[in-house]
Amino acid sequence: MSQTLILYPLFAMVLFSCAVGIILLKLRVRAVANKELKVSYFELNRGGTAPDYLARATELYNNVYETPVLFYAAILLMFSLKQVDVIYIALAWAYIVSRLVHACILLGYNNVLHRRNAFLVSFLVLVIIWIRLFIHVIAL
User: Fold this and answer.
1) Residues 24-47 pLDDT 10s
2) Taking the CB of residue 83, how many other CB atoms lie within 10 A of it?
3) 9, 28, 68, 87: least CB-packed within 10 angstroms?
C-alpha cells in the first residue's frame, strides 16, 4: 500500500481549515457591512456583541485549530514510521467526515446534542488512531 494515501485526508483537513477561515472573513465583512459590528470590534473582539452567525463561525474557526493538531501529528507520525494501512486511512477519512458534519451542524441548525455527537465521533476516532499508533510504536 502506498504510504502517500494517508496524506490526502491531511490535505483535506488543511483545505477545510482554509475554507473555514475564508467563511469567517466573509461573515466578519458582512457583520461590518450590515452595521452589526464596528471594525474596531475586531481589534480585541470587544466593544459589541457579535451576531450569532459570526459567533458560531468564530467558534468553528477556533475548533479547527484545537484537536485537529493531534490529527496532523498522527498522520505525520504514521507516515514517517511507514505504518499506513487501510484501517488508518479509513479512520483518517472518518475523522474528516465527522469534522465536516460537526461544522455543518454548527453553522447550520446548531443543535447542541447533534453537534456534541459529531464532535465525540471525531474525538473517538482520534483516540483510536493514537492508541493504534502507540501500539505500533512499542512493537517496533
Assistant:
1) 999 999 999 999 988 988 888 788
2) 18
3) 87
pLDDT in tens, 4-14: 999 999 999 99
- Cα–Cα distance, 118 to 91 (Å, whole number): 14
Which among 92, 85, 94 has a CA at the least distance from the CA of 71? 92
Q: Which domain holds residue 35?
A: 3-139
Q: Look up the CATH number of the domain holding residue 46.
A: 1.20.120.550
Query: Cα–Cα–Cα angle for 11, 14, 16, nearest 5°?
Result: 110
Supply the DSSP symbol for 64. Answer: T
Domain count along the chain: 1
